[in-house]
Design brief:
By secondary structure, the chain is mostly helical. Helices cover 68% and strands 6% of the residues.
Amino acid sequence: MGFFNKTVTINENGTIINIHNKKEALFMAEQWMRIANDSANLVNSTSNVDVFFNRYSLLIEELEKLSKLEKFHCFKQQQPSTNLKEILNKKEYTINDFITRFYDKTISEINSLKTDTAKSKRIESFYKNLHKYESMLSSAHLERIETLYLDLKNI
């Protein structure tokens, strides 16, 4: 039976989910796909640091789970493993794009503030918020953040 066993075991936040057949796989895939699509939309549009990094991580998790379901042949279009590879290959660009959005939002907020103290706090917040996710950033990202932070301080 082991050779023909198609059961996929997935650990979802401490809960073990066993998927035995295509019907179960399709049911779970629909839910995980919805979460992955929602996460991808947020990753590509948000300028909130916490939302971006949490949803980027969630997107990767959902695609990893969906990739395990490929053996049930439930995907008609691009395979989740292919999507996952693309997203991981574009990580540098995706994070850079987000940093640009967050920087632009920060400049806009600074321009609307009246006092130098409020502006300084907003600049420090830019730096601290990004550095909370330092473990997800490359050295190139960190260098860029330093440069943008200094640019903000010189405005």
